[in-house]
User: Fold these one by one.
Assistant:
Number 1:
Amino acid sequence: MTQGSDQDRAFARQGRVVAVVIALGGLLAIFAPVLVSLTGLPARYEILFYLASLAAFVWALVVAIRMWRTRSGDEG
């Protein structure tokens, strides 16, 4: 296999990880009230779920921007 092919696979894998993190962060934000009410946790845990979801979105944004800059640097 060539080096370019391995880099493309790694880049695609990283993109899939970012997509999964965005999807799970969104699901956590949507189902936070349901999780809190089903488990009987105090309302402050709902805020904790929202903060975890926000952290996932920020992480995904940072990684996506890094990927974009890396890819645009390869082309030009």
Number 2:
Amino acid sequence: MNDMKQGLTLAQLRQDTADALNTPAVDIADDDHLGDWGLDSIGFMRVLMKWEEVQPGIDTARMYEAETIAEFWDIVRSTRG
């Protein structure tokens, strides 16, 4: 379980994304286009809701424009100030 004080980690972000895709996290590169892996808007909405619980204040508009784990992570890091 994530420590709420810690916020969202890259490992959790990667695992949640992989879980949504039903694929091992190690198979997805940071710069892979997640749409090519089959991440659809419903799957993404589910993981984003989970992330918002752990990391309040995520810029959801930017997250919807992001296409890779690396881009997701940059947005999460920028949320922390």
